[in-house]
C-alpha cells in the first residue's frame, strides 16, 4: 500500500512516489543556486548525489549541507565543457537513476554588440555542457539497464524575448529541442527526459547588480507575476525532484514552467 501523508490544503499526497532511497543522482552546477538546492533536495529524498561543478569551494559547501542531513555526496570538481572529465565522473557511478543537467552561465549583450566569443562561451556551457551530461548519463543508464530520468534546465527566456538575452535564450531554446528529441529516442528504454524552465529566480546568477538596482529588478519581476513574488532556488529544486521521481513516471518530453505565472504558453 502506498504511504500517504495528510495535506492541510487538499487530498492525500503519495509520499512514496517521491522517495529516492537507494538511487543515484548526478547533478551538474551543484556548487550554488538551483544546482545546489536540487542536489540537497534529491539527497533529502534519499538519493546518493554526485555533485559536479568547477567551483571547488562551493562544491564542498554543498557536500557539507548534504552530509549534515545524513546524505552522501561524492564530489567532481570539473568544467562540464570538458567531455572527457565529465565522462570519467559519470562513469564513476556504479549506477545512475537521475541526471540533473543544471549547470549554466548568464550573459547579457544587445544583439548588435554580441561577439563571437560571447556566443561561443554561452553555447559551450549552456548547450554543449547540457548535451554532454545528457549523453553520458543516458549511455550509463543504457549500459546498466536503468529506467532513469534526465532533467535539463531551460529557462523562461525560451517563451519570451528579452533585451540582451540572445546568447542565453538561444542556448536554452536549444536545450528544449535537445530534451524533446532525446525523449523520443530514449522512451523505448524506459528513460524519461524533461526540462524545467524557471522564471525569475533569486540565485547568485541573477544577483548581478548593486543592492538598490537588484531590489528594483526583483520588485518589477514580482509585479508581473500573478503570485506577486520572485522565485527561490528551492521552488525549482522541487520541480527537479518531481521530474526525477516516480511521481512523474508518465511524463517525458515536457517543459515544466515554475515561473510564477509570468508566462502561460499553450
UniProtKB/TrEMBL annotation:
Q: Name the domain of life.
A: Bacteria
Single GO term (MF): oxidoreductase activity
Tell me, what's a Pfam family for it?
adh_short_C2
Q: Which UniProt keywords apply?
A: Oxidoreductase
Q: Which InterPro entries match?
A: NAD(P)-bd_dom_sf (IPR036291), Sc_DH/Rdtase_CS (IPR020904), SDR_fam (IPR002347)
- From the UniProt record, list the coiled-coil ranges: none
Keyword Magnesium recorded: no
Can you tell me which family this protein belongs to?
Belongs to the short-chain dehydrogenases/reductases (SDR) family.
Q: What is this protein called?
A: 3-oxoacyl-[acyl-carrier-protein] reductase FabG
- What organism does this protein naturally occur in? Streptomyces brasiliensis
Amino acid at each position: 500500500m502506498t504511504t500517504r501523508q495528510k495535506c492541510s490544503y487538499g487530498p492525500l499526497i503519495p509520499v512514496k512516489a517521491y522517495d529516492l532511497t537507494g538511487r543515484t543522482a548526478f547533478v551538474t552546477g551543484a556548487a550554488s543556486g538551483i544546482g545546489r538546492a536540487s542536489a540537497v533536495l534529491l539527497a533529502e529524498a534519499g538519493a546518493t548525489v554526485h555533485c559536479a561543478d568547477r567551483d571547488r569551494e562551493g562544491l564542498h559547501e554543498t557536500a557539507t549541507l548534504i552530509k549534515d542531513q545524513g546524505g552522501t555526496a561524492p564530489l567532481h570538481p570539473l568544467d562540464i565543457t570538458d567531455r572527457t572529465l565529465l565522462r570519467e565522473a559519470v562513469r564513476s557511478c556504479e549506477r545512475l537513476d537521475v541526471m540533473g543537467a543544471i549547470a549554466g552561465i548568464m550573459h547579457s549583450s544587445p544583439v548588435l554588440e554580441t561577439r563571437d566569443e560571447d556566443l561561443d562561451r554561452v553555447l559551450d556551457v549552456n548547450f554543449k555542457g547540457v548535451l554532454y551530461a545528457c549523453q553520458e548519463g543516458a549511455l550509463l543508464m543504457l549500459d546498466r539497464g536503468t529506467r532513469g530520468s534526465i532533467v535539463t534546465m531551460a529557462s523562461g527566456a525560451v517563451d519570451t524575448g528579452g533585451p540582451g538575452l540572445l546568447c542565453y535564450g538561444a542556448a536554452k531554446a536549444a536545450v528544449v529541442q535537445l530534451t524533446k528529441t532525446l525523449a523520443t529516442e530514449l522512451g523505448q528504454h524506459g528513460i524519461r527526459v524533461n526540462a524545467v524552465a524557471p522564471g525569475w529566480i533569486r540565485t547568485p546568477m541573477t544577483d548581478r547588480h548593486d543592492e538598490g538596482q537588484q531590489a528594483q529588478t526583483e520588485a518589477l519581476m514580482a509585479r508581473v507575476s500573478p503570485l506577486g513574488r520572485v522565485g527561490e532556488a528551492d521552488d525549482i529544486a522541487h520541480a527537479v525532484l518531481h521530474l526525477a521521481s516516480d511521481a512523474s513516471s508518465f511524463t517525458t518530453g515536457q517543459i515544466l514552467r515554475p515561473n510564477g505565472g509570468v508566462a502561460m504558453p499553450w
